[in-house]
Structures are given as C-alpha cells and as structure tokens.
Amino acid sequence: MKRITSILLLLACFCASAQDQDAYGVAEEQFYRGQYGSAIRIALEGLQVDPALSSEESAVELYSILGASYSRLGAFDKAADFFFRCYQYDKKEGNQEGMTSSLINLASMYVYAGKPELAEKRALEAIENEKPLGRPLKLAMAYGKACDVYHALKREETALEYANLAVSTARETEDAGAEAIRRSQRAYPLLAMNRYKEAEADLSFSENYFSQNGNRQSLAIVYFQLAGLYERTSRNSLATSYYWKALDLARKLPDKPLEQKICNSLSAHIKKTAPDEAYELLSRSAQLQEEISKSESDNALELFNIEYETAKKEEQIARQERELRTEKQLTLVLIIVLSVLIVAAIITAITAYRSKKDREKLKQSNAQKDFLFKVISHDIMSPAIAMLRGIQMLRGHSGDGILERDSEVLVQLERQAESEVELIDNVMRWARNKEDSSSRDKARFDIVSMSREAMEQYRGGASQKGISLELVSPDSIIVFSGRNNLLIALRNLLSNAIKFSHEGGRVTVTIQEKADEIDLRVEDCGIGIPADKLDSIYNSESSFRRPGTVGEPSHGLGLAVSRDLVAAIGGRLDVRSVEGKGSIFTIHIPAGGGRKWVMM
C-alpha cells in the first residue's frame, strides 16, 4: 500500500507542474513564450503521467509541441522523431488533413538536419496526400517544401518545377501574401541557375508585399537575397544598400544567425571600398558566433538536463513498478510452491504405491519372459532344427526311385523349414541383443574367414536355385568388433539375397578396407526394392512383405535384426537398390577402433 501511495504522489508532482491544466495547454503557452525547454518538460511529463495517451489524440498534440520545441533548440533529429509519430497517428486514423502538415514538418526537419535524401519521399507524399483535399494554400505549401528539398539536393531544375507549381497554385487563391512567400522561395533555384531577371522579378514582388504588410523576418531574407543578386550582376551600389537594409532588420528582429550571415557577406562585399567598416562587421560576426555557440551550448545542456530528468523520473516509476511486481511475484511463487509441495506429496504417495505394484508385475513379467525364451530355445527351436535336418537327410538319401513331384515337395518343405528356423533364430538374437549387453562384446577375428563361414552355410540353398556365391576380398583381414553380431547380420543379408535372386543369378560378397572403416557388401542381381519402400524395409512392423523368386516366405524381420545388431557394435547398415535390377546392402564397421591388422 505504501508503494502505491508513493507512485500516486510522484504522479501528482508531475501533474502539479501543469497547475491543474491540461499538459498541452501549458506546454503550448510555454512554447509561444519562447520557453522551449519548459515546453518540452511539460509535454514529456504529460506523456509520463498517462502512458495510454500514446494512442490518443491528446498525445499527438503533445508530439507536435515536442517536435516544434526540439526544432527551435536545434535538435532536428529528435524533432523529426516526434513529427513522424504525428504522421503515423494521422495515417492510422485516416486524418488526411493533418497528415499533410505532419509530412511537411517531417520533411523540414530532415532538411534542417542535413538529410534531404530522407525528406524527398515525405515531401512528395505530402503533395499526393493534399491534391484531393481541395486546399490550394496547403497544396502550395507542399509544393514549396518539395522546392526546398530539391534545392538542398542541388537538383535545381526539379526544384524550379515544384516552385512554379507552388507559385501558380498560390496565385489561384488570390492571396498576395501566399504568392509572395512562394515567389521568394522560387528565387533560390533561379539564382542557382543564374536566371537573374526572373529571380529579381520574384524578389521585387515579395519585397513590395512584405514591406507593406510588416513581415520583417521575410523582408530581411528578401533583402539579403536581392543583395546577393545585385552583387552577382555587378550592381554593387544596390547590393551594398540592400545588405545594409537586411542587416538593420536582422538586428531589430533579432535573428543572430541571419545577422551573422549578412555581416560576413557585407564585409566581403565592401572589403576594398570600406575596409574599416568591413573589419567592424567581421568583429561583429565573431561576437555573434560566440553568442550563437553559447546559445547552442546552452540549448544542448538544457536538452541534456531534460533527458536526464525525464530518464530519472521514468526510472523512479519503473523501479516502483518493479518492486510491486516483485512482491506480487513472490506471493504468487509462495502460493505455487505450497501447492506444488502438497501435490508432490500426494503424487509421491501414489507413485510409491504404484511403484511397488509395478515391481511385482515386472518381476512376474521377467520370469514369464525367461520361461518363454526357454520354451522357444528348447521346445520350439530344437524340433524345428530336427525337422529341417530330417528333410535334408530324406532328400539326400532318396535316390532315383523318388518321383519328381515328391522331390519338389521335399524342396518346398526344406525351404519352409529353413525359413522357420531362420525366423526363430532372428527372434532370439534380436531379443538377446536388446536385453543382453554381452552381444556387444568385441574381439579380434578374421572377417574374411567369418564371411566364408556364412557363405558355406548358404551355398547349398543357393545351388538349388543355380545361384553362384562369390567372395571378393583380401586373403585375410583381422578386425576388432562383434563377431556374432556381424555373422548373424551377414547371414540374414545372404539369405535375403538368395531368396530374392532369380534362378541362375549371382550373389557377391565384397570386403573393402578404407581409411577409418571396413565395408562388408552383399550385392545381388535380383528383383530389387521399390524406391518408395526403401525407408520401411528396416521396420519390423511394416506391411511391406514379398515372397522370394520361387515362393520362399518372408517374415520382414531379418533386416530389422541386422540393423540393430550392426548398430550395437558401432556400425551402420545402408542399402542401394533399383527395382528389377538388384540390391546392394553394405555393413560399415569401424576399423578396429583405430587399429587394423591385415594379414597378407
């Protein structure tokens, strides 16, 4: 409660500076009194009191005061930032009438800041925005601003085009004052293009109007322009006269920057004819430069103080808000922690009870699994092997008396029995690989000898289909890896290669040494694998199943088992296949953990 009271008191202090009036009214009053720093402070405080003003019309009014005040203090970049906010608001609200003024002000700030390239787009946008509104005076002002921008960009022909549009538009209003302003503006590109007669006509018109209507600021500038024109056209007496007229008005305004420019120009003009007066003018110019520099330094210091005070007040509010948020967060955290502890206690009790039940179930499950492995190993695997051996013996001793039809039946029975034995063996090996880390044990062995062993096991089955088995490798390669895993994987790959090869085909086993690995490749010229099925061949749950080329059954488990067995010893299994042309399966294994033994 104390913190909330502090914030309210702080906000009250901000509001007190406006003496219970709206911030815009007080800031505007200070601006017209020439108290630009005070105007900035009051406008910024008005925004700080209620940050929600940033989306309201009253905030835009404060932005306009800030832009105008910063420009008077020479902070043109800051002024441009606030005029840009006015433009954004007008554009968002569809306020086209206000948007023209915002764009003209924004373009002016960019020109004063020495960034006319940024002003070009805004000046042209102001013209396009104003055209459909039917306000010729404002349109003439937009054309005039485009003239200023292109004059600053040294593109005098373009500047003159827009100046002509400004003058003709102002003339249509029959407002001599507006025409005088635009014609004095047009004189700048005309003088730059050495079109002195046209410039003189424009400046004479403006001189006549401003002298009659008491606009001393504009009249001083026109005198200065005319003096420069007469000097360029060698009408020196007229030039001297108008320089003195301009200087006299600039002193009365007072306008120190303009007075300094006139002093410098007049001093240079009369240096030869009146050197004493020229010297006095230069002395006055130096004095004015000191005063201007001091004024600029004072302005910079005032702006710094404004920013410092504003940042300090913002930090006070932000700190109070942070402390309030921290207290709320701590309270919330305490509530959450207490709730979590209560829930955790309940969950812990439930989990402990369930964990006890789960351990009992796991113990029963492991016992059942061990029993199932024993059944598979002894009661299923043994009879399956016995049946396979019996069929093989029957075929081997049948002699010539057996019918061809019965011989084919025995061949089919043998293939079926081999498939069943292979399936049971794969299931057992896969289960042991996942449960028993011993399958990952490594040792040194001859991979070439192991490959011959696997090929001899399948040579009989291959010969039944007229398929030749070939081994391409060195005489011997000693590796440090998991022999059992590699042997089973190779057997599965050979079995598949024979199964899916056409009769009379060829299966080639290639062993190749590389820098950091050994490749064991099984290649066939069989039916291949469709491209869209390659990603699913290692998935034991995939529905992709195909019989062999002579009807051999396929269970879809061999490749999944092979991949896992190879991965368990740090290798990988990949495949390249073209449907109808064959497949190449390659086992990549590390070269003995960085050591290889090659027997020649």
Explained architecture:
By secondary structure, the protein is of the alpha+beta class. Helix content is 70%, strand content 8%. It is built from 19 helices and 8 strands. It has helices at residues 2-16, 23-32, 36-49, 57-72, 76-93, 96-112, 116-130, 136-152, 156-172, 176-192, 196-213, 216-232, 236-252, 256-269, 275-396, 404-435, 447-464, 483-499, 558-568; strands at 443-446, 468-472, 476-481, 506-513, 517-524, 572-578, 582-590, 597-599. The strands form 2 sheets. It has a 5-stranded mixed beta sheet with strand order 2-4-5-7-6, covered by helices on one side. It has a 3-stranded antiparallel beta sheet with strand order 1-3-8. A hairpin with a 3-residue loop joins β4 (506-513) and β5 (517-524). The longest helix has 122 residues, at 275-396. The two termini are 91 Å apart.
Concise summary:
The chain has 600 residues and is α+β, with helices and mostly antiparallel strands. The chain contains 19 helices and eight strands.
| Total number of beta strands | 8
- Low-pLDDT stretches: 1-21, 593-600
Question: What's the N-to-C terminus distance?
Answer: 91 Å
Describe the main β-sheet briefly: 5 strands, mixed
DSSP helical segment count? 19
Give the helix proportion (percent range).
over 70%
Beta-strand portion reads 5-15%
| Strand arrangement across the biggest beta sheet | 2-4-5-7-6
Instruction: Name the overall outline.
Output: elongated
Mean pLDDT: 83
The radius of gyration is 49 Å
Order of helices and strands, N to C? Answer: HHHHHHHHHHHHHHHHEHEEHEEHEEE
Structural class: alpha+beta
